[in-house]
Amino acid sequence: MAGTGVGQDLNKTLSLDVKNVSLKQALRKIESLAKFSFTYKTEDIAAYTSITYQANGQTVARILDDLLRPANLQYELVNENIIIKKIRLVETPVYDGGVKGKITDQTGNAIPFATVSIVGTSQGTVANAQGEFSINAIKAGLYRMQASAVGFSPLVQNVTVQNNEVVEVTFQLAEGDTRLSEVVVTALGISRNQRSLGYSTQQVKGENLTLTKEQNVIGSLAGKIAGVQVTGSSGASLGGTQKIKIRGVNSIAGGDQPLIVVDGTPISNANFASSDRADYGNLGQDINPEDIETVNVLKGPTASALYGLRGQYGVIMITTKKGKKGPKKIDVQLNSAYSVEKAGNFLPLQNLYGAGSQQTWRTLSNGQKFVQLDYDESWGPKMDGTPVRQVFSFYPQDPEYGKETPFIPHPDNIKDFYQTGYSLNNGVTVSGGNENSTLRLSYNNTNIGGVEPNTWLKRNNLGVNASLDLTPKLTVSTNINYANNSAQRPSQGSEWGARYLVQWFQRNLDMTRMKDYRYADGTIKHWNISSPATGSSGVLTDLSALYWDNPYFDAYENLSTDSRDRFFGDVGLSYQVLPGLKLSGFVRGDMYSQNIETRIAFNGRRVPAYTSGKYQNKEMNYEFLAQYNKTWDDFSFNANLGGNIYNRKYTYVTGETQGGLSSPGFYSLAASKDRPLSNSYLQEKEIRSGYGMASFGYKNTYFVDVSLRNDNTSTLAEQNNSYWYPSLSGSFVFSELVKWPALSFGKLRLSYAQAGSDLDVFKTSLNYGVGANYTNPDKSIVNSIYIPDELANVKIKPSFAHSYEAGIDLKFFDGRLGAEFTYYLQRNENQIIPLTLSGTTGYAQTIINAGMIENKGIELTISATPIQTKNFSWNTIFNLNRNRSMIVELGPGQDVYPLYSSTYSGVTAYLNAYKGQPFGSLIGKAYQRDSATGKVLLGTNNMPLYTEANHNFGSVLPDVTGGFQNMFRLGKFDLGIMIDYQFGGMFFSRSKMLAVKTGMAEETAVLNDKGKNIRDAIADGGGIKVNGISASTKQEVTAYVDARSYFRTVLGTHVYEEWLYGADYIKLREVRLGYTLDKAMLGRLPFSKVNIALIARNPAMLWQKAPKGLDPTELSSGAQSISWLESGQSNTVRSFGANLTINF
Question: pTM score, two decimals?
Fold first, then answer.
């Protein structure tokens, strides 16, 4: 029969969640929750300073057993008191046999005060502070020995003991397997036990984001989370834009990027500052990856409903590292990484024919042959060493002036432009704490030299995380981050910098001669200039560039530079009112100021110019949260009630010279020949929110969550500015009822939620714009204002997303094998899209609520530890997402919505959204085909015919995305390999089209089936072989046609279809090979651990559907929401280096 008082309390259930606290603090927490006290000797528990433990609805007796036994402690009821004391080990008679050894973690660091016992006996001991132990007086025989420690998984090994022998054994413990009861950070920074969640989340540890020192932390998520797709710029762009898609495209008009939250503070990931010449990147790059503890992705509206308008497209929850409470101790870590970076994956080019439009030579009056200088293509004569006048021989300042040089290929002339880049990353962290406070300071410096000349990036990050218990109930905390970025970035797009080199160039040009681009008298050396007339003397008076600047001139004279200072973080107070009731208040901010300058120099193709801009953004969140937790008998209840005021102020001031500059080298608005153009902008926005959430649990098996949020936004009209966003989810841990030995954990989950998206400012009321200056007849200048051509819509409402999700989570063999499967369906309706208006209205368009896009798909994550022994372990994670984004509805009477278009060199590429079809259809001209056979129709000249009307080729979006991550440990070696993949989708390649059009691509100079070069005359056996159906006779035709006409005037000018490529790939993203030196190996050195690693980023594309030279993972599309167009793509950058981490 149960007793009364404390004895009865030991059978009650409660929830406990502690992280990196001392045993003393954990016991105090139990005292406050259970309302009784413990008696113990301080010296018995003082050594246990870092305990992480989570229990939900467990009895006090079970919790005490879990905490005390690994510490070799036990509790005893004496009257109404609970006495904690050391376990008295039974002494045994002395025998000659014994065991000694050491207990370490998987990196070789000693685990102090771990417990070692002989299974099935009373013999055991506790390791010392160095993890060393010994057990004497053991009879000869085979024993099973177990080592255990708080925060680590127990390990059992077989040990054979002989008489007169002491066996030496090493136990290498793995961190406690939290996969069965993992605590994750959810919306509003609330920590939850994952078993209670009714929706899908996926967490990545910070150490998995810094394996190879990715420039942008957003890029390091690629392939690591099911349903999360990361695409963006090449490393050559130096911190360029990285886009994140969670579960497909959720907005017809774009802008569906997830919210990023760092330690509870929402921060901007926008790309406000951009131009047509440089990619300044998204603001997520300001996060220091070395500070990240975990990243948890809230994938759908159910998980992110508490963020309301800002959370419709998912939330990326980043938790940073903190100091630890406990006895005073300072931990110091130094980290240094250096990588060399090389541009790779170049398009295969031909090296037989050089500059010109024809294969015949032109001559001067003196009989000298000369290159056709004014032709930026390679359809010219063979590069067979013939002596000719080349471009440099027409510059009087050049030593080759007037001289002939051999006309030979320079196979690496494009590669020669690129240099070996580097990345140097150095950081230091200092962390510690005492019984009442924590502190962590971090500093990180990144210095990158680009693979393109005269490009660089420098970044400094400073972080401060601190907390202080002002009283036992009142805690103040702060998390402050500062980032400073400065960069000189390469030009972007097919018309600038080095982007055109694979599109318009001459294969005979010696790039090394272009590097010293300025002669002594100041004349700029260009490669495409006016050609002399045939039969002339060859003296040129105009040596300026016709089509393209010297790429070195562009790199060193036409500059794009920027700098940014940014602060983000919070200050908060938390008060423990009663056991289970806590009140918190935070002031959170994200502020940055960015300056941008661009220069266009004299002596180039363009008018000299200077532009400058200052962009400032300030976002503040004022937050209150009340949290209540209660457990009784078999029930648990958690409630959260809070409110938030979000305020944003965004401004910019820009200036641009007009009509040129007054003097070379003087870059200032004051140097403008005409009155400079200036512009300023101010945007303010506020959202006021209230929200609540309640979670109910029964027997730690059945869970139900409900939440509700109301947002009141300033961007909508008063009658439409308040909306409610509910969510409902449930989970059933059926493994509590199903007793199958192999099944460690099983959960079913189901959820539903609504979420909405906001719109930009100035959309619901009449506003004015500042127009061009007006000059009066008396020459006075006045400013003008105008009414924009978009009609404001006072009735506009937020779009709404309805999300449904179901899934199952399974763990087998004590967590060694796990699977998570999710099916989701999300309908985003009442989209905010533009509607074209009749010209009679006086407006061009308005915005309306219309349209629906539906996403449905599956997610699968499989995690496994196939091998785990004393010296070797293998952990693997495989994830997969299958998604379909379908346009269900558009506007009234609207069947197509134009997304983007791009026209160049006679070919227009369109991306449209069609009602009833998958999102993102590629549209353009196709081959005309015979209806019976599907073969291409040929004209009277045997050239392929193309359609006059545009053709829909299908969606650019992938069908399947995912990743495959493996971590191996062998002794003190560790090996990490990350692969990501994509199947389905497509893109249009302008670079490939133009490389063929201009005669540079390899396929424009190959041999035909007769063994002749296709550029040879057809009469001599040359020409390219075509096969098709005659459009006039309907008979099958096989013929040979002129290669230049075929590639240049047909395929390279009209046929869109030819340049569409599948976006399928399998890519080796990351490789890391490390070795750890522990304290024993370091001897008297003042280090506790040293890790040395070789690292590689983007080392290989294992397979792709697109041709060599194109990388579907790095399609740069600037501000566009999806990647579909390749145009002057930066080359893939491969990084190889080393990393050194030192712990004190």
Answer: 0.83
